[in-house]
Each structure stands twice: as C-alpha cells, then as structure tokens.
Amino acid sequence: MPKAFITGTTGQDGAYLSELLLSKGYEVHGLVRDKEKSDFWRLVELDVKDKVNLVEGDLTDEERLKNILTDIKPDEIYNLAAQTFVGASWHDPVATADINAMGTLKLLEAFKNCASNAKFYQASTSEMYGGIHTSFALDEATSLHPRSPYATSKLFAHWMTVNYRESFDLFSCSGILFNHESPLRGIEFVTRKITDGVARIKLGLSKSISLGNIDAKRDWGFAGDYVEAMWLMLQQEKPEDFVISTGVTHSIHDLLDIAFEEIGINDWSNYITQDPKFMRPSEVKELCGKNEKAKRLLGWEPKVEFKELVKMMVEKDLERLEK
After folding, report:
1. Of 78, 93, 279, 313, which is the most buried if we count CB atoms within 10 A?
2. pLDDT tens for residues 8-48?
C-alpha cells in the first residue's frame, strides 16, 4: 500500500486529492494544525474524514515536519498548504510569505533530509504569470511576473522546488495550476461568493452580491480534475513541471450569466454592486493556460466544462442553504 503525505488536507484540493488517493488504495496522511479545532467540512462532505490519518503539525515548524516524514516514510508528498487568497495577501504579506515561501522551503528541507526517496509535488499557481501581456496562452516556458504578495511567495516556492530537483537530484516537481473551482471552494473566492450569493437570492435570503472587479478573465476548471493531474505528475519516471489548465478563458460576466440563469434570472445587473474594498492594488486582467505538455506526457485533459462547473456549484449551494 503506497503512502501519501498531504499538507493542506482540509482545503479544496486536499480533500479531492485525499478522495482520489484513497480510491487508488493509498494510505493517506494529512497535516492539520489542531485535530480538535480544524474545520473538516470538506473531508466530511466527501465522506473521507475518518479514512485519512490526521497528523498535527505546522508548515512553519521544520523539526516537526522532519519527525513526521521520518515516522510516516511516505512514497509521495503533496504540498498543498498555503495562504491561497490573493486579496488577503495584500493585507498580511508577511504571514503569506512565512507560509507559502518559507513553509515550502522547510518542507523541502525535511523532504531532502528525511524522505529523499519519496516524490514531491509543489502546488504552484498561474498567478505567478501575473503581469505578462501576451495574446498567447501561457505555458511552462513563459516568463513569470507576479503581481501580488501571494504570487510572489508562490514564485519563491516554485523556484526552490526546481532548485532542490537540480541540486540534490530529488524527484520534486510543480504543477502550475490555473484557477480551479468546485462546490468545496472557500466562500471568500469570487466563484463561490457568486454561486452562494445567487443561491441566497433565489431563496430570499439576500438581495444582492457585492463584488470587486467584474471584468477579469480566468481559465477556470474543476478541482476534482486537477488533483488527478497532480497524481499523474508523480507517476512519471522523471520530475517535470506542468501547466494544468483548460485552455479556455471566461469572464466574471460569463460566470454571473450562467449562475443567475440557473435560478431563472437573465438580467443580473440589479443584483450586483461593486465595492472598492474588493479591488486589488494591482489587478491581473486575464490568464489562459496552454496544457499541451500535460496532454502529451500525462495523458491528462479536463473533463468538466465551465458551464457544468458553475451549475454544479449553484446547485450545491442551494442544497446547503435549503438544509
């Protein structure tokens, strides 16, 4: 039985990845800060909480990470833990860097010293491309230009993962994942904020949704598809970095159209307000990924299309609120 160690187990990707690995016969160990106080709602919703071996620890505690890896002896390590909300990184850039950048470095050190035979996956992000102005889809060779503390901290972690691969001959690789959503997405993210808000409007619990920039365009996919790509990356003979994306962009306008259409509203203009507090100091207007390498070498392609994804999220939020 192969063993996997996941940081960020209670997050969206951690929950879907746990479900996937368990279905493949893995023994799954997940890092949590506090077994008593952590929020396990995603693991509960996927019915995997009692199947994951929860281990207490903190990504910023290197000695604890070394002890965990020594005890578990994992075959695969997935570093998904991070402060992932771009907007929040502007309010607390130091904490964002401590977790996303230095936390990854400490885990890489623990990996190198205590579990060097394992395979290591780093969750990188399309936000690292940031301010790149191009009409072409972004791939593994595209230059990087982060435009937020979140993206900059992730860039550090990404390049440290490359450095540990090249310097110590470790199997360490990064998935440069474009935006991926699901019914398990946190309520602070615009996709889930919209689908939850639409469900509340449908049920008479709210009259409007307050948003920031609604002109941004993103390459949105389904998180359940993307964790399969993570796993496939660690099944290869040699470690390589991969862009994981759909190759198609949609605007927040498109998202609003589909979400409101799901509850029978065609003109949503009277239900949306724009609030300056949700605007970012520097905005990334559009991101679109080129997933040809993942298709060719991993045999991976996204299965869930954008419209299906948004409808799935609205339906799940309606179900939750009705309960």
Report:
1. 78
2. 999 999 999 999 999 999 999 999 999 988 899 999 999 99
Q: Which two tokens stand for residue 148?
A: 């937020």
Domain ranges for the chain: 3-180+221-244, 186-218+249-288+304-322
- Please give the backbone phi and psi of residue 308, each rounded to the nearest 5 degrees, phi first: -65, -40
Q: What is the DSSP letter of 244?
A: E
Active-site residue 127, yes or no?
A: yes
Name the 3-class secondary structure at 31: strand
- Class of domain 3-180+221-244 as given by CATH: alpha beta
Closest CA to 173 of 71, 298, 53: 298
Determine whether 121 is an active site residue: no
Residue from 121, 150, 164, 226 carrying the catalytic annotation = 150
- Give the pTM: 0.94
Which residue is catalytic, options 125, 152, 161, 246? 125
Architecture of the domain spanning 186-218+249-288+304-322: Alpha-Beta Complex (3.90)
Measure the CA–CA gap between 143 and 134, rounded to whole angstroms.
11
Q: Which amino acid is at 112?
A: K
Strand ranges (E), the chain: 3-7, 27-32, 53-56, 76-79, 119-125, 171-177, 180-181, 209-211, 217-218, 221-222, 242-244, 250-251, 272-274
109 annotated active-site: no
